[in-house]
């Protein structure tokens, strides 16, 4: 762009709308969806596979199975045996990771374009012919247990979040931790793994996203060669349990004698991502905690000086989800005062709505944070896949900025009032020191 | 999460923010169609009449612009008894200027949807902001206001200091973080600028007058480099920066500490930080390494990748994949102005602490004794070249980071333009010479955080010189 228009025109030109990503969508005959976005800025590719299976598809006794399975996907298949997935990738200049959530399991590969065909071969091998080596299972069980100890048992925030979800949900599978309860980690069997593989790893249950220095035709040729021959299967059975409405506040307290800083976490039941209110709730989270001028930061961190940090977020979900507010209380400060200040702010928002230029500010924040997400091929691959899985339509990312502009101050006030109520909330508090004796 | 190479740094993170790992450092380059043609993108470098250096690198992938001010000094500029002063000074820049209150400043930054961060590491303070191209004039005005005209209001000073003190206390709640805070204090010791703890004890005596003086001496034109990367027109931006920063006082460049002795450890030592509620032991095993511009840096980068900086590394393969003892094990080469450490780190459960340390030492011994082979070297070369662009060249922020690194250490563009050929030219013999030179079994320094009552007897075999300190005592203090 950058036409030189002289001094009469503002220095820096304004984009009329957010940048659009050109994405081509295809379906293989086995039902796998393939989304491609070409980006030739760097000679690399992000290849993301989203399987629509997560901890919501598990059952008591085998919690954490989706996440354990995510680890097992790196432990050998028919053509490429144990360790070979990583060895082949790394010696060809690539690396990978993977993540599991309550709703999905995602595999994330980053590599130079020269390794594109190898990656299709590696991914097809493990989707089609994963091996279940008992020795690898035992070793990986130890790895996952260590991950749990690191992220939950030795992390005050991890421990408290686990308690919060276990208390907020009494029926729906969102109640258990993605990594699984310790007893289940100890007890998983090879048959649990095989059952999970059959349930979740159908090609028709997967969205494949490729972003980077690729040609669409070449990607399709490779997808047809390597992935299309894998037969279709039944997708995971629907999750039938629905969380019943919450009829009163729930509370849970956690004692940590060696802790210095208390924590106050709160959750309110809200609808799933596909619901019309999810975007308003997401924008509301920014009004509350994005930046130092946000309502909760200003009140809790700067004015009352009760917290070191506070963060509000809307959690994406295929099923009805939660709106979270997490505050790290200052050592020595009173967690109940934090709660009170928090509810004051929510009440003010519900009764008076937004003021001044708050709405314009939050729209600008949404736009720039969107640009930050699409700066990298990895960021683009992730949001394209998430839009397809959670909204059922990858095109949502191209209407996102516009959709946000349509959210009104009244929408934000309404969702605050409707969902962030005392009856609908669960509060989890972590307190330092020992409980006082009676 | 599966975990991967990132896990290699767990427990040994730089506490103050800005520190790149070796591979975030040795490089730089930007894209060309093929990795084999990595070259630094076009940028200009000029010096204003007052001595301010300005780097401009235009690029147009998204309508964002990234600015950063690199101010030399960092922890080296802290008076020994006031460690953390430079960080507190940086934090206060945004908390009130001569024309804006802290609230007004926050409101205006947020209204642009911009980011604004301040930090300081071992060698520099960094003020960074990122915003939409259309807001360049406003954002530059805010950025310059914070750097040139901070008012350091008394109430904001007190608030920021007390928040930082509380954050220092709260940081000790996490055992991995706790270990990473104790490590430099233990390894470098109180006579080295990297070994002075910035904790509630060193922060408490800081006065507003210290902050004002620190800003007056460091935030001067001859000690500052301004870097802009992103979607802008260079002549226009150059003119705007020239005007905005013309009033910055010339001052003097920071005088780096002279004659700092590298830590010399003539015997193995071991520190246990007692954290009674921990169910794992977080450990770091350290040996002497290199400084940022050391001639061995490329060969060491390749060796350390194989030893502990990727998923299939020797350490991760043994401690995670083969034995299931931990979620991840790795090694890291510190690269700062002064000679740093090479560290092995991981976190086994309490009961398998010595089993994991023994295994880590076995892996170290194997590297020391056997070195690496041709196939490993070629795999390491392909890996570092392949991942380089996604870690360093994709975003304006990454590129600004690379340019600051070159500026700070006085490196020229050959550091980047010749990177591929310097990687390719490392021979097996050179790599193994470097492996033997740095990865050594003697006088290792062990820093552990965990349940002292359960591990202190069994770990005493690693060093005669062993100390146990309590995590509940104030500060990050060993004596």
Largest sheet of chain A: 6 strands, mixed
Mean of all residue-level pLDDT scores of chain B? 92
Low-pLDDT segments, ≥5 res of chain B: 4-36
Spatial order of strands in the largest sheet of chain B: 1-2-6-3-5-4
Approximate strand percentage of chain A = 15-25%
Q: What is the CATH class designation of the largest domain in chain B?
A: Alpha Beta
What is the CATH architecture assignment of the largest domain in chain A? 2-Layer Sandwich
**Strands side by side in the biggest sheet of chain A:** 1-2-6-3-5-4
CATH homologous superfamily of the largest domain in chain B?
Metalloenzyme, LuxS/M16 peptidase-like
CATH fold node name of the largest domain in chain A: Cytochrome Bc1 Complex, Chain A, domain 1
Quaternary: heterodimer
Can you write the helix and strand succession of chain A as a string?
A: EEEHHEEHHHHHEHEEHHEEHHHHHE
Q: Domain count of chain A, please report it.
A: 2
Q: Give helix % range of chain B.
A: 40-55%
Q: Stretches of chain A where pLDDT falls below 50 for ≥5 residues?
A: 1-16
SSE map:
The complex is a heterodimer of chains A (438) and B (479).
Chain A: E1 24-27, E2 33-38, E3 44-51, H1 65-72, H2 84-91, E4 95-100, E5 105-112, H3 116-129, H4 134-153, H5 156-168, H6 182-187, H7 190-200, E6 206-212, H8 216-227, E7 250-256, E8 263-270, H9 278-289, H10 295-303, E9 307-314, E10 321-329, H11 335-352, H12 358-373, H13 377-391, H14 396-406, H15 409-419, E11 425-432
Parallel strand pairs in A: 2-6, 7-11
Antiparallel strand pairs in A: 1-2, 3-5, 3-6, 4-5, 8-10, 8-11, 9-10
Chain B: H1 22-25, E1 44-47, E2 53-58, E3 64-72, H2 85-92, H3 102-111, E4 115-120, E5 124-132, H4 136-148, H5 154-171, H6 175-188, H7 200-203, H8 208-218, E6 224-230, H9 234-244, E7 269-274, E8 282-288, H10 297-308, H11 314-322, E9 330-333, E10 341-346, H12 353-370, H13 374-392, H14 396-409, H15 414-417, H16 419-424, H17 428-438, E11 445-450, H18 452-459, E12 465-470
Parallel strand pairs in B: 2-6, 7-11, 7-12
Antiparallel strand pairs in B: 1-2, 3-5, 3-6, 4-5, 8-10, 8-11, 9-10
Helix pairs in contact in B: 2-8, 10-13, 10-17, 11-12
């Amino acid at each position: 762009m950058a036409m030189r228009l002289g001094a009469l025109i503002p220095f820096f030109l304004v984009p009329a709308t957010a940048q659009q990503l050109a994405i081509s969508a295809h379906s293989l005959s086995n039902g796998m969806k393939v989304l491609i976005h070409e980006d030739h800025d760097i000679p690399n590719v992000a290849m993301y596979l989203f399987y629509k299976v997560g901890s919501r598809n598990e059952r008591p006794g085998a919690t954490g199975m989706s996440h354990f399975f995510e680890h097992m996907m790196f432990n050998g298949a028919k053509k490429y045996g144990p360790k070979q997935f990583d060895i082949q990738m790394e010696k060809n200049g690539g690396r990978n990771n993977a993540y599991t959530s309550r709703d999905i399991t995602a595999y994330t590969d980053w590599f130079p374009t020269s390794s594109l065909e190898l990656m299709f071969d590696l991914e097809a091998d493990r989707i089609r012919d994963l091996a279940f080596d008992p020795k690898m299972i035992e070793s990986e069980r130890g790895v996952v247990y260590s991950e749990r100890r690191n992220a939950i048992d030795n992390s005050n925030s991890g421990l408290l979040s686990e308690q919060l979800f276990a208390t907020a949900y009494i029926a729906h599978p969102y109640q258990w931790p993605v990594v699984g309860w310790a007893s289940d980690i100890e007890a998983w069997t090879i048959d649990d793994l095989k059952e999970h593989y059959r349930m979740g790893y159908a090609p028709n249950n997967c969205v494949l996203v490729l972003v980077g220095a690729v040609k669409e035709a070449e990607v399709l040729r490779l997808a047809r060669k390597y992935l299309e021959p894998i037969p279709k299967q039944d997708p995971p059975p629907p999750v039938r349990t629905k969380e019943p409405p919450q009829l009163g506040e729930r509370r849970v307290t956690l004692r940590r004698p060696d802790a210095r800083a208390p924590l106050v976490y709160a959750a309110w039941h809200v609808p799933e991502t596909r619901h019309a209110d999810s975007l308003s709730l997401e924008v509301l989270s920014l009004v509350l905690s994005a930046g130092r001028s946000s309502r909760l930061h200003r009140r809790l961190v700067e004015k009352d000086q009760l917290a070191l940090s506070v963060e509000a977020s809307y959690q994406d979900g295929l099923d009805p989800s939660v709106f979270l507010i997490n505050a790290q209380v200052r050592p020595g400060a009173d967690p109940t005062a934090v709660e009170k200040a928090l509810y004051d702010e929510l009440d003010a928002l519900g009764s008076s709505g937004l003021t001044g230029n708050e709405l314009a500010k939050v729209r600008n924040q949404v736009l720039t944070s969107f640009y930050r997400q699409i700066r990298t091929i990895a960021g683009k691959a992730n949001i394209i896949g998430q839009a397809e899985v959670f909204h059922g339509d990858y095109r949502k990312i191209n209407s996102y900025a516009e959709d946000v502009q349509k959210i009104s101050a009244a929408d934000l006030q309404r969702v605050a009032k409707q969902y962030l109520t005392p009856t609908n909330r669960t509060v989890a508090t972590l307190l330092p020191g020992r409980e006082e004796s009676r | 999460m599966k975990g991967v190479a990132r896990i290699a740094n767990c427990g040994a993170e730089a506490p103050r923010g800005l520190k790149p790992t070796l591979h975030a450092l040795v490089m730089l380059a930007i894209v060309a169609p093929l990795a084999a043609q990595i070259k630094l993108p076009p940028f200009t470098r000029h010096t204003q009449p007052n001595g301010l250096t300005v780097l401009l690198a235009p690029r147009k992938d998204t309508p964002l612009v990234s600015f950063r001010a690199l101010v030399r000094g960092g922890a080296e500029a802290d008076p020994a008894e006031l460690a953390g002063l430079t960080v507190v000074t940086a934090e206060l820049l945004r908390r009130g200027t001569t024309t804006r209150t802290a609230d007004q400043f926050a409101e205006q930054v947020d209204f642009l949807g911009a980011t604004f961060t301040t930090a300081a590491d071992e060698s520099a303070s960094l003020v960074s902001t990122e915003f939409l191209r259309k807001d360049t004039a406003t954002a530059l005005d805010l950025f310059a206001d914070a750097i040139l005209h901070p008012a350091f209001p008394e109430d904001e000073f007190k608030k920021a200091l007390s928040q930082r003190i509380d954050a220092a206390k709260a940081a000790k709640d996490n055992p991995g973080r706790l270990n990473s805070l104790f490590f430099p204090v233990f390894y470098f010791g109180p006579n080295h600028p990297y070994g002075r703890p910035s904790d509630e004890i060193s922060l408490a005596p800081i006065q507003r007058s210290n902050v004002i003086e620190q800003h007056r001496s460091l935030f001067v034109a001859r000690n500052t480099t301004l870097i802009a990367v992103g979607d802008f027109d260079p002549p226009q931006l150059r003119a705007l920066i020239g005007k905005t920063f013309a009033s910055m006082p010339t001052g003097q460049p920071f005088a780096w500490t002279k004659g700092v002795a590298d830590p010399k450890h003539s015997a193995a030592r071991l520190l246990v930080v007692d954290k009674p509620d921990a169910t794992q032991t977080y450990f770091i095993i350290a040996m002497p390494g290199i400084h940022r511009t050391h001639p061995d840096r490329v060969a060491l980068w390749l060796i350390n990748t194989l030893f502990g900086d990727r998923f299939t590394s020797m350490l991760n393969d043994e401690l995670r994949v083969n034995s299931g003892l931990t979620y991840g094990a790795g090694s890291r080469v510190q690269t700062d102005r002064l000679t740093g450490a090479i560290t092995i780190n991981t976190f086994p459960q309490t009961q398998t602490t010595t089993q994991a340390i023994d295994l880590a030492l076995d892996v170290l011994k194997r590297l020391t004794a056997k070195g690496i082979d041709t196939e490993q070297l070629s795999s390491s070369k392909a890996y570092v070249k392949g991942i380089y662009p996604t870690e360093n060249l994709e975003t304006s922020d990454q590129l600004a980071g690379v340019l600051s690194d070159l500026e700070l250490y006085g490196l020229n563009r050959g550091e980047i333009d010749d990177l591929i050929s310097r990687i390719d030219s490392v021979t097996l013999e050179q790599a193994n010479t470097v492996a033997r030179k740095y990865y050594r079994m003697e006088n290792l320094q062990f820093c552990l955080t965990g349940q002292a009552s359960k591990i202190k007897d069994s770990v005493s075999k690693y060093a005669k010189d062993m100390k146990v300190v309590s995590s509940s005592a104030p500060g990050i203090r060993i004596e």
